[in-house]
Amino acid sequence: GLALSPILALDGPPASEAELLDATVRSARAAGDPELLVRALRSRGVAILQHGRSDDALADIEEGLSLARQHRLRRQEGLLLIDAGIVHLRRGAIDRALGCIEGATAIGEGLGDTEVLALAWLYRGSVERSRDSTERALESFERAHALLRRHGHLRREAAALLNIAVIHSALGRFAEGVRALDQVIEIGRRLESRVFEANAIVNRGGIHLAAGDLDAATADSRHALELQRALGSKRFEALALANLGIADLERNELAAADEQM
Fold first, then answer.
1. C-alpha distances in angstroms, 29 versus 32, 34, 36?
2. Nearest-angstrom CA–CA distance, 114 and 138
3. 3 falls in which pLDDT band (50, 70, 90)?
4. Neighbours of 16 (CB within 10 A)
5. Cα–Cα distance, 32 to 94 (Å, whole number)
6. pLDDT per position as a tens digit, 25-58
7. What are the phi and psi torsion angles at 218 (to 5°)?
8. pLDDT by residue (tens digit) across 190-235?
């Protein structure tokens, strides 16, 4: 299968990080600067969301959103709407998520702000996938990718491409999925990120396997296994081993498959 879901740390941010975020918000309140406080609340909300604290994250994001609207900070309002949409999506409130993302899209278009617009399309794709609107999701990710590529946002471009690859593979368009992952691998090399490169190779091996190209699947999975072991990533190492085992089963090499799996 495709290993595209992020692994979230659920034990909370380190104490030093949490203290710094709280201190930043306190300082911003004391300074009486609305924009500084909006940015501080957004930073804390986004950070704690990554650790599973969606209620606390939403409280910060909604406070920031209220302040941004009160003080006509339109760009921050757009970014916070995207953040709110992400929280609602994770909580399964898909209609609320869509409403937030549509609001952010309107702000991005009104301001001519490429970053806000690109992020809105990126997360619109995730919302559409949750609604089982596959073609709309693909269109959204492709629009996000075009904007991100034009403006050199490499990491977010890679995120869009990963989602594009997943959708093409699910629709049986394996060659398109492989081409998208080829671009992610290239981005990983440009960023000198072994993690990006290794994870994309695992996923490409999965697509080759789904397409029935056992030789390509095996080559990618062996390469990925070597990289993942060097990185110490047990989850993706296991996925590479699973891909190798399935390829061996398809060849009726039962002993080899048993060893891999």
1. 5, 8, 8
2. 19
3. very low
4. 8
5. 35
6. 999 999 999 999 999 999 999 999 988 899 999 9
7. -65, -45
8. 998 888 888 899 999 999 999 999 999 999 999 989 988 988 888 8
